[in-house]
Amino acid sequence: MRPELSSPALFELVIFDNDGVLVDSEPISNRVMAAAITEVGLPTTTEDSMREFMGRRWEDSVAIVEERIGRKLPPEFSTRYRERRDAALAAELKPVPGVAEAIARIPLERCVASSGAPEKIRFTLEHTGLLHLFEGRMFSGTQVENGKPAPDLFLYAAEQMGVPPERCAVVEDTLHGVEAGIAAGMKVFGYAWYFEPDVLAEAGATPFRSMDELPGLLGF
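The structure assignment produced for this chain is given below.
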């Protein structure tokens, strides 16, 4: 039985998050993040980092760390983290299983709206062979005032694509992302890879476990 919202006429645009939805970067980035935070005096596991920082902009994550350790992070912290993260991504990053095939079955306009910096979005999509699917339609949290869970980024992406929020479907994998999509007045589909389906559903998303399910959820 298909979900209530299954008609393709309901949507004109699909807005994809990047990390954890298009590219399987979350365990890699958060492993490096956890190590970096631990080094500055806040013991953190990869699981801790994923729970706290997945879906957030870098500057918002830094602000949380600084608040918890009670001091400013050293100037080289961000540079050192990005160098280590990029090296790990270059060595290990792969696309989310089945995502390219799913996108090929969805005949709607699409774009990316990611908390990551523009250069990171481009690097990860190019490295995984997905860049051609989103060239010229990539939007970053650095382009808006407030990052996820605020709705700013999704609203900005919809505006740039010329589609009203109520005609947009969002594909997210984090609680912060789901909350942002709901706050934007959009229908959110939650890829339950790192969060349990009921957790994403409680936040307001329609959960799914495999990218093979996504076209059907959108009505195709």
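Interim note for the steering committee: The two ends are 14 Å apart (CA to CA). The longest helix spans residues 76-92.
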